[in-house]
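re: that complex we talked abt at group meeting.

here r the seqs, copy pasted straight from the sheet so there may be weird spacing, ignore it
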Amino acid sequence: MNTSAIQPTRIQKEESADQRWARFKPISNGDQYVESLRNRDLTVYLFGEVVENPVDHPIIRPSINALRMTYELAISEPELASAWSPLIDAQVNRFLHIAESPQDLVMKNRMQRRMGQLTGTCFQRCAGLDTISVLHSITYDIDQTHGTTYHQRYLEFLKQAQRNNIIIGAGMTDPKGDRGKRPTEQHDPDLFMHVTKRTQDGLYVTGAKAHMTGGLNSHWICVMPTMNMLAEDKDYAVIGMVPADAHGMTYVYGRQSCDTRALEEGDIDKGNATFGGQEVLVMFDNVFIPWDHVLMDGEYEFTQELVTRFTAYHRASYVCKTGLGDVMVGAAAAIAEYNGADKASHVRDKLVEMTHLNETIYSSGIASSHEAKPLASGIYMNDTMLANICKHNVTRFPYEISRLAQDLAGGLMVTLPSQADFESEATGALLKKYFKGRHDVTTEERTRILRLIENMTLGRNAVGYLTESMHGAGSPQAQRVQINRAMEIERKKSLAKNLAGIIATDRQNPS
Amino acid sequence: MNTSAIQPTRIQKEESADQRWARFKPISNGDQYVESLRNRDLTVYLFGEVVENPVDHPIIRPSINALRMTYELAISEPELASAWSPLIDAQVNRFLHIAESPQDLVMKNRMQRRMGQLTGTCFQRCAGLDTISVLHSITYDIDQTHGTTYHQRYLEFLKQAQRNNIIIGAGMTDPKGDRGKRPTEQHDPDLFMHVTKRTQDGLYVTGAKAHMTGGLNSHWICVMPTMNMLAEDKDYAVIGMVPADAHGMTYVYGRQSCDTRALEEGDIDKGNATFGGQEVLVMFDNVFIPWDHVLMDGEYEFTQELVTRFTAYHRASYVCKTGLGDVMVGAAAAIAEYNGADKASHVRDKLVEMTHLNETIYSSGIASSHEAKPLASGIYMNDTMLANICKHNVTRFPYEISRLAQDLAGGLMVTLPSQADFESEATGALLKKYFKGRHDVTTEERTRILRLIENMTLGRNAVGYLTESMHGAGSPQAQRVQINRAMEIERKKSLAKNLAGIIATDRQNPS
Amino acid sequence: MNTSAIQPTRIQKEESADQRWARFKPISNGDQYVESLRNRDLTVYLFGEVVENPVDHPIIRPSINALRMTYELAISEPELASAWSPLIDAQVNRFLHIAESPQDLVMKNRMQRRMGQLTGTCFQRCAGLDTISVLHSITYDIDQTHGTTYHQRYLEFLKQAQRNNIIIGAGMTDPKGDRGKRPTEQHDPDLFMHVTKRTQDGLYVTGAKAHMTGGLNSHWICVMPTMNMLAEDKDYAVIGMVPADAHGMTYVYGRQSCDTRALEEGDIDKGNATFGGQEVLVMFDNVFIPWDHVLMDGEYEFTQELVTRFTAYHRASYVCKTGLGDVMVGAAAAIAEYNGADKASHVRDKLVEMTHLNETIYSSGIASSHEAKPLASGIYMNDTMLANICKHNVTRFPYEISRLAQDLAGGLMVTLPSQADFESEATGALLKKYFKGRHDVTTEERTRILRLIENMTLGRNAVGYLTESMHGAGSPQAQRVQINRAMEIERKKSLAKNLAGIIATDRQNPS
Amino acid sequence: MNTSAIQPTRIQKEESADQRWARFKPISNGDQYVESLRNRDLTVYLFGEVVENPVDHPIIRPSINALRMTYELAISEPELASAWSPLIDAQVNRFLHIAESPQDLVMKNRMQRRMGQLTGTCFQRCAGLDTISVLHSITYDIDQTHGTTYHQRYLEFLKQAQRNNIIIGAGMTDPKGDRGKRPTEQHDPDLFMHVTKRTQDGLYVTGAKAHMTGGLNSHWICVMPTMNMLAEDKDYAVIGMVPADAHGMTYVYGRQSCDTRALEEGDIDKGNATFGGQEVLVMFDNVFIPWDHVLMDGEYEFTQELVTRFTAYHRASYVCKTGLGDVMVGAAAAIAEYNGADKASHVRDKLVEMTHLNETIYSSGIASSHEAKPLASGIYMNDTMLANICKHNVTRFPYEISRLAQDLAGGLMVTLPSQADFESEATGALLKKYFKGRHDVTTEERTRILRLIENMTLGRNAVGYLTESMHGAGSPQAQRVQINRAMEIERKKSLAKNLAGIIATDRQNPS
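got the structure back, here u go
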């Protein structure tokens, strides 16, 4: 199709890697991060309109606030959210730190849980960290096989990223079109991102990356293959780093449940007025990547491993949802107290059950980190089996935690009038009269907690707490496929046969 | 508090029962129903504003459409949705029919499932039917004890209701204030509805009824006690029939997740553009009820039984959710097909699981109807234990069905751009390009099904499918209390002791 | 293989149908039933030995006691366990009654639950009832197609069965050999039962029927195909009635967990000393069936329907497990009381949960009966979908009920010393001293209830309560296949598409 | 009561601590362990009889074999099952090693899983390890408070234990009598173990320890309080080390499901012929403990902490069940293969589900070890919350794994004839004929795997895999109480309130 109406053809010389970096300056706190997003020449669409200033758009801003908190946490809890990088011999944000030990991965998990507690939403910076993590070993391995220099390029990029303290978005998920067909078989080649041209300076890619978490809030986007590629897919086996404001990129903002409440006056009905997640579609129309920022170009045989390792990191990153789970437990306990029901044994029992499920998720996440092993490049990677176990529990337990929170909330959560009604002269006093519970709790407090539970189980942040828990980092069946592969069924059969007296392959029985 | 600012004092003579009925005329189809709601003098607030014309308000209309369907179904499937009433010797809408047999209750359940299939939401007419059902026997029983004439009044009302084919709303749930206190102990007497004055013509009530299903779409509202009342609560033990537009009533509309999408252009993002549910707060400020429409005044000792019988009917009414479940199964199957994944064994297996859970709910609902027994007044009532079982399953399985539907939907459900983006010149063609799946399915079809699943699992109709399934007709713990009462634990202990050889209380062992 | 060593070749004329019946006389109570099993010329093996007198064998007798109770119940609760048979114009045991209405099937379910309550085990008579039920319509339908006279033969057999009040065993499950192969492809033709010879008097079958419930306690065994047969399988498409003591039959008794406790002295450690289940392997070596007792011979095209209808009846029969569930609830409540823990809220809550699950099973069972429809032959058959739902719940909930019972029992259930230790001079007084709980409960009472729970969750009757609940009437996957077939997925898709605004196939939307 | 008939009064001088140790010699392999159990003067009862030679008793021996494996594993996999002890400057069995790091606790978990894989049962040595672990810190803490010398005594004991490589049994669970009464309120003071006399040489205790794991297979038993003691319970606050053959001790063997199959000929029907668990009741009648082996005498205020720390160690020890889970997965996969069903997608899916649940347990166990923290005495202790999470999952998932294994096994598991029938001349050939599945799998192999699954889900090792998983180290409610205590509900409430805009207690919101 002809997309020229949107993106004009470029004739000037393309920007070099250095030129691209020259546009950045180090970010040292949240405010600087927010500022860094201003005045970029991005093409963003939302509700069919161009968004001139995304930073101050009421629907978009909460997602920026969530990322902003990653900068603030590094200041307020530096041991948790920053780390010493030998690469630049300086303290860096942990979201840009290469895991040098299992403990580094555990600290990452703790930071993720804390971020979840503080924002109650998807704070969008994990996928970028998991991307730079997987590229550390993959570029190294390609170089070992092919004598390329991807790893050095990668390290140079990473140093700049650490120095400038930037956000990296993970551009992984291609639209895929007909699931029954390979990239080259699609009726439209753009349904998987691919190289359209190679020049002396670099290469050009066309395609799209779907439901990209925090895409618009990123400074750089790493495009990489979404699945295993074969020899005929060489042009699709491409990894590159692209500034979010590169020529040829178009963003379309994804809708979320209750998104337009952000446009309303008042902060109560929003539930969580400050923080939200973000998913965008990013389309690339012959976007240029200088060679210094190309980290794979045709080495298709490493794509399978790329995906497997990425999911090893990323599926464990879903411990972030235990931070949201902590908020859910707290919100459920608060509303029970406000309703005067917190002493009931069934209420207490439900809070315990919510906690049990939440900590079970946490266990499997940190266990996969504690059991991490080093790869050839020196970076540590989560235990694959346990990372899949973690994510698979995340596809189940938040739904049950959410169900229990709704149980404790009571039906009022979905029948409350609007904030405007509470504040109107005509009805305000009446509503306060009739929605009064315990004498020491204001109707507003009660309403705010109910709206928070609504936000996290039906509304804007339910997207992150539920549906994204289901599909992010791979849908449930993807984990089952991995567990199936890793479960060593023959070894377990032989354990059973040994005890059943069939054949003693594993160990001699005592006489 | 002084509410006089809102409702002016009335000095004219109060309307009699006959005068009230005289304002109605028989409704014979959906259009007439919609018309019947126009030009009523209701005081309705939404988003802090008075709603002048609720019928045509985009947020309210879908809830009217759902009720409208109860009229249409009686025409298109009369055997299902109407019945012969010996009271007026005519065919009446089944939602106004007194159960003369278990089969009548089963037919009611089938109609409810069908309504759920056709609307995908709460169609708001069940509570009214369950109200007239419970009043049939309760008025009869009071009369037997006290020599009152409530049952005759009731029958007269019901004849009018059947002839005029009206909607009755169930005004049951008082705000309750501090849950640890009885009605007379509350700091504000109005937190439970009560009689404020009795005259020769009738009585006056003040109070409020919270999260009243379809309140605004009703013609009459039955106010009745929400829980067991004691001797000191006599003034709170009141049942009466009130026209929805009686003097002294104020409505405040409850918010729902994604409610304002109804205000947007386009029908796609709404998910289910036609149908929705409705919950309102109704406040009563000295509302008059003529004696002919008073069905209890002080006979507090019948309130416990009133609640128990009402829940026996109403908890079985939640089979309606199996109709929504059918839609969920269908939507999940459709999106799997659109995604090209419908042949995968795990997809098929999830559809089977959804169906299994849905039919399990249906089983317990119709079982409680089939096992119905007649009461003294001649009406049949659902088996109490099984009705509670039905509702208790409804507090669990729709959540799991919803989780599985989200699993099959894929993450796109929560990252799709808006309809406006799909239709914009700038991005429309690009979005259609990139969100294209199978060649024989349009992007719009795919989007529409995803929006429907969003609507039912996160959006407006998730309120009805999930949260209302949790709390409507009593929260889970309420069912557990009833199951605990009805489970005949001593009898079961004796069965066990008999088999364990402890004591043979139940039956002789063979030698 | 040559099996002549076990069964001598017969040369005399074969017994006619009349001669076979002449050996029976009407049974009118439990004692007569037990007597009717004596002095039969059965070849029975158990622990490698011939059992000369099965009736008085301590392992076998409890299974006979369970069937005996079906006779006693018809006397003590005749409205429940007997029915009027128009066939012989007399009251008959309900286990031999042809369902003339949905109510008949519901009464059967109630009787099954009651039998479960009274025996705490599998009472083995359901499969026979479900067999005569399915044959009523299948023989009728074959006759309609082929002009055969199977239905008349069937009715004659049934009259005799009712008059003599006999037990019929269902010989359905062939060994099947390699599951990947059809009957005619097996390396041994006997792995599916088949006709080996046809004479003027009748036909001869060879093969085996595996895990036959109550086989040894039956008077007659009905052999029938276990699955769909094709044209090439004609000799395998055979149904016939065989007396349990016909020439050529050999029984091998199946082991059960803890079976040999029945051989120990004392009744405590048995848990349920009186009642048990029975599964046997029955092998047929050229067993003769006179034509009058042949009900299918080659009409393979009816085998699929035979199986489907049989499972419709039989899967609903698993409501019997709710009777065992009642015993489990009672036992759990009793031990909680004996332990002094019955007031704890979590104990009460677990009893409620057990009851909820148990009644959910019951709901789906009786719902499938209430929704029964008549077949061409006039008999009523359970609703197929709901019968499968019932059985599918039975493959899950008894395990959870059992788990909860073990929770309430405490660990003592699996560490208690033997009855002999409790009764020994050396240790008896010490054990009573140390296992004393509440002062008003004897150590023996406590022990007996614990042994009953052991019996039903690990021991002999766990076979019936758990594993048989899993596999009887078809393993879980078999129900899923049926649910998949019956779930009308296209219809449900169109409901969803209609609401999503895709195509209005099901009903017009209101404007 | 008078127990003098069993234990004669002693008049000679009591054995000193040194004398007691002098009876031991170092054990360096499994055979020496078995020998070490011979010729001890134990009073053991089983089935009402004295067991003269427990070591060779067919019911007891499998439990000894399981412990024997702990010695063998230290030889075959020394890095896993042994560790360097700085206390004696030598390599010791890991079951006697004091955790000096989180990694030590993780290695312990791995060893436990491996032991579970190799034995398929409870190998009985964990509670002893967890006992010496908790005493390390508790004795230290008492000394710090009271200036006592318990910790030095403890270290001396531990050195001897390590040098001699002995088994220590944990004597913790008192009979407790009426649960509603404190120790001093019981009608019989012996229902909790207590000091009866103190002399210059030591003290004497009387009481009993119920369901003591591997009691009879231990060399020493540590008696300690089972719950929090108060000031008035001082004589009950006693910890001491007792040789298993001390004067005054009487053992009564606990029954297990199918225990007597161990007495039958043939190894097939046993399911797991080699290994089993053991629970005994141990009664103490004025048993002497020299002061050197007394580790608490009256310091009641440390009993609460004793129990809490013990459960922190012991609840994580239940990862051993993941070893049994591995066997279950393997057995289920093997029988599916033997049945020819291993390619079915639902079979594969059930194996994945079993693995997922099993690894989830493992995650929470090792996570609690990885997150261990040092105590004042220098020993590391598992994270309390996660150890409780681990155990709580163990009270659920093995039941579901077991249910799925029974699903895959098929009904034959509970209807198979006995080994004797398979081997009898009369029926052997017929049974092999009819129970033949795939041509390349013998009937015996199929039978053996089925018997193993029976063993672990209904039989002898179901005691360890299921019921002990429920109650060992505390019943489910005990974990819920701990989770409730540890869940920091106020902190979580403040997280929720912060996001809801109620009060910002946890962190400033960005503007």
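couple things i noticed - The longest helix of chain B spans residues 345-370. Residues 1-8, 504-511 of chain B have pLDDT under 50 and may be disordered.
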